Amino acid sequence: MENKMNKEATGLTHECGVFGAIGNEKWENNTEIAQIILIGLQALQHRGQESTGMVTSVGNNEFNIHKGMGLVKNVFTNESISQLSGIMGIGHTRYSTSAKSTAVNAQPFVVHSMHGSLAVAHNGELVNAAELRKQVLARGVGLSTHSDSELITQALCLIPPDGEVNGPDWPARIRHLMQLAPLSYSLVIMLKDRIYAVRDPYGNRPLCLGKILASTQDTVNTFTEDMINRVTEHEKEADGWVVASESCAFMKITRYIREIRPGEIVELTKNGPRTVEIILTPEGKKLAFCIFEYVYFARPTSIFEGQEVYNVRVHCGRQLALEHPVDADIVGSVPESGNAAAHGYSLESKIPQGELLAKNTYVGRTFIQPTNRLRQMNVALKFSPILTNVKGKRIILIDDSIVRGNTVGPIIKLLRKSGAKEVHIRIASPPLKYPCYMGINIPTRDELIANAKDFEDIALKVGADSLQYLSVKGLVRAVQKDISNNDRELDHCTACLTGDYPGGLPDKLDW
Length: 511
Ligand SMILES: O=P(O)(O)OC[C@H]1O[C@H](OP(=O)(O)OP(=O)(O)O)[C@H](O)[C@@H]1O
Ligand SMILES: NC(=O)CC[C@H](N)C(=O)O
Ligand code: SF4
Ligand SMILES: [Mg+2]
Hints:
Number of helices: 17
CATH architecture of the largest domain: 4-Layer Sandwich
Distance between the termini: 8 Å
Largest sheet: 7 strands, antiparallel
CATH superfamily of the largest domain: Aminohydrolase, N-terminal nucleophile (Ntn) domain
Number of domains: 2
CATH topology of the largest domain: Glutamine Phosphoribosylpyrophosphate, subunit 1, domain 1
Radius of gyration: 23 Å
Structural class: alpha+beta
Bound molecules: 1-O-pyrophosphono-5-O-phosphono-alpha-D-ribofuranose, glutamine, iron/sulfur cluster, magnesium ion
């Protein structure tokens, strides 16, 4: 794909972050909403670092827009925020999947339709984008980019098949879009006086609802069990409502309420949130929340399906210890995403946990590594061994995933050179073998180290004593262990691990 060259050195490129906020009827027209969105976008920075943008409105069709390439902290200045006054708004952090990483594809997308302005922020990727593109173009609509998110924006301007009697029927338009393209998206859609939060019928991408605390309420920034069960209690007092890709975006003055359900269309107005409709997955298809959100993408403090991501990662580590035990002196992780799984492995195996590697946090995920040599140098820059825990020790090293193998290979060498007696690699997810067509850029078949037949030999050659992965069954078990879902039969997408695609394959395969 055209935009794969600039991707980060290690791991999977993330997805996108979406955020929306709307004040209640008492809300003043100032930049407070923009600042709440700004905080949310900063908290969602890990999901997309290529470009970002925000659109606000005072309640009419003249939307204020600011977008740019780069990080949230660089794109938004005091000056740009001062131009973003309003009583509601939406924002986005982008990792490109369907069109180049350029300013023209930065989100949210805004169009001016016959029925007023419309802004859309999208996380995901349309599996049938090529087909939908043809349909939209055939209706006489011109598109200005190759972005599937622009396509969604224009598809929402189409009059639904049953027509409209009294002006635009936005829920019907959204429903129509969901029928035309059931996978994959979490959307925030802003009109002049409302925001719609929409999750695709498979529930492939995350999206959650929160509230802006009433100024009279305390601002304790914690998630408690009863928040899930006492939703109505929480909805009673609020100064406004927020939606975000992950609950980690709700901080201090905003608070998590609940997840948007798969297929749910929620309408947020100054009077509060209201479920308009829930669209079911197509006949014979199962729900397919991305299992990699748990493994790697999400912040450990985010909540999905009623459970904290950290806790699921601990379960993965426990399960890994059950599946692949080995005698050793110390269990450690490749920081950061491997930390929780190492904790779980240590708990289950009763082998003490300790830090093996110090991470230089200044070598960020944004560094551009055009060649393999530079990628590997970056790993050496990123981690230093903690000799006290490494020298003369039999080590179990846990990481959450292996993608290109750029992290684990040099680390094995590093630990060996630093005097480790044994190095046992344990990976808290199964080997990644297949592409993702739902909003994640997975490296090409050849780049994916799990597809190199001799990878295990390579790892052993550079000094590992053993290398084992969590099984698919084990991962699913760890993820589903604590979920209590009475509504619908729960399931997760594991396509990049199994090749079993929840909604079939796209019309144009590219890998
Ligand atoms: O096999 P590779 O291509 O090297 O990719 C795998 C590594 O990339 C990710 O870490 P990353 O450094 O992106 O972020 P983290 O700090 O969240 O672990 C992941 O956690 C693995 O450590
Ligand atoms: N990673 C994403 O969710 C990307 C959204 C959208 N497909 C884009 O390329 O802008
Ligand atoms: S293929 Fe993998 S990364 Fe893509 S949605 Fe499914 S589980 Fe997530
Ligand atoms: Mg890592």
